[in-house]
Amino acid sequence: MQQLKTPFPWAGNKTRQMSEIWARLGHVDLFIDPLCATLSSLLGRPGGAQGVERVNDICCNITNFWRAVICDPNQVAHYCQWPVNEIDLNARHYWLCDRSWGENSIKAQLMADPDWFDAKQAGWWVWGQCLAMGTRWCADPAISSRGHARPKGAKPVHQKPRTIDTCPGVASPNVDAYAWLQALQHRLQQVQVLNGDFARCLTAGSTWKAFRTVGILLDPPYSQAMRSRMLYPTDLGIDDPNQKESAVRTRQWAINNGENPKLRIVLCGLSGEHSMPKGWIAYEWTNNSGYSSIGGKDRTSNEVIWFSPHCLKRSVQLDLDLAG
Ligand SMILES: C[S@@+](CC[C@H](N)C(=O)[O-])C[C@H]1O[C@@H](n2cnc3c(N)ncnc32)[C@H](O)[C@@H]1O
After folding, report:
1. Does residue 224 lie in a domain region?
2. Cα–Cα 20 to 30 A to 233, which of 22, 141, 219, 260?
3. How many C-beta neighbours within 10 Å does residue 261 have?
4. In this structure, are 321 and 206 located in the same domain?
5. Which domain of life is it from (predicted)?
């Protein structure tokens, strides 16, 4: 089976690490990716959909995009392919920011109605994410790139498009967006999509109480001290000194639950970012994809994936685990 590609570029995308991650997760009855972004985890899962799969992200544009792809991939494809045009990019950015952050935010509609989605917003958002990624696309206009409050009514940051030949993802003029998004719809048919803080997907009742084996991928935004601020459009903790950032909270959750024999937990981060207890295995890799840079001028980062004590050992064959 040909592996489906992720449809848009994203800082911290783990596509290239999925074979290592799945070799250590093996077959699990429930898989949870609570900070999912591009769904590289599901798209890189050997053998496709299995068991129960649950994904979540706090960013309403990501959640709307995946819901729209599942419900109406052709409409999303219709809106996501458009010639490169700086005026259009900025006009759409204003429209999207208003609906992402203003009084007209789609978050309430997404939450209130499980059938609600906006294919136009999904298509325009992914078009811009492919064309303008790295330029604070759809980031909250009320917060500056340094994380400071901007005046009420501040305009979204001006967007400058990439040149056409470097446009990646489903907005590239060289791809069949309809076929790509239809294939994604097919893959995601049974996937549960949530929108909110990651911790809501990790309660005992929804995870290990109901399932024999649970795989959990924790891939939070890198700690703010180690990367440029506002690398992500939504990032709890960045504008609230009383709120611990996601990197700290996911690490704490991983440490608290690492000894649970039902759980195979994977925590991603930068080298030196997390100090994990004895029994966790650290897998080091160098990220030079450019999209996953930690911001600013850095194009390469040294990263680590930590595997909890009950993850499979690398030498154990996946089929042995399946047989068990
Ligand atoms: C490094 S990216 C994940 C990349 C993903 N694994 C992939 O391969 O595409 C981190 C994601 O966490 C999301 N996020 C940040 N804080 C969150 C929180 N408290 N709860 C849920 N999602 C959060 C961001 O919106 C972003 O999409």
Report:
1. yes
2. 22
3. 9
4. yes
5. Bacteria
Question: Rounded to the nearest whole angstrom, what is the distance from the C-alpha of residue 318 to the centroid of ligand 1?
Answer: 27
Q: What is the DSSP letter of 205?
A: T
33-42, 137-146, 184-193, 210-219 — which is least confidently predicted?
137-146
Q: Rounded to the nearest whole angstrom, what is the distance from the C-alpha of residue 319 to the centroid of ligand 1?
A: 31
At position 236, the amino acid (one-letter code) is L
119-132 and 60-71 helices, crossing angle to 10°:
120
Pocket test for ligand 1, best of 19, 31, 38, 246 (most atoms within 8 A of CB): 246
Domain count, the chain: 2
165 pLDDT band, cuts 50/70/90, is low
Residue 264 φ/ψ, nearest 5 degrees: -115, 105
Q: State the Cα–Cα distance between residues 266 and 252, nearest whole angstrom.
A: 13
- Rounded-to-integer distance, Cα 217 and Cα 291, Å: 20
CA distance 66 to 210: 26
Q: How far is the CA of 73 from the centre of ligand 1 (A)?
A: 23
Look-up of token digits 């009950």? 310
CA-closest candidate to residue 50, choices 258, 198, 214, 217: 214
Q: Which residues line ligand 1 (CB under 6 A)?
A: 10, 12-14, 34-38, 40, 56-59, 62, 197-198, 219-221, 232, 234-236, 246
Q: Can you give the residue range of the structural domain that contains 106?
A: 60-188
Q: Confirm whether 1 is domain-assigned.
A: no
State the alpha helices, DSSP H only, in 55-176. 60-71, 73-80, 86-101, 107-112, 119-132
* 230 shares its domain with 317: yes
Secondary structure element (H or E) that encloses residue 24, with its range: helix 18-25
64 in the same domain as 54: no
For residues 203-213, average pLDDT: 88
Whether 2 is covered by a domain: the verdict is: no
Token representation of residue 164? 């056409």
Q: How far apart are CA 293 and CA 10, in angstroms?
A: 10
Report the percent of the chain where pLDDT is more than 70: 84
Going by alpha carbons, the residue nearest to atom 15 of ligand 1 is 235
Q: Is residue 45 over pLDDT 80?
A: yes
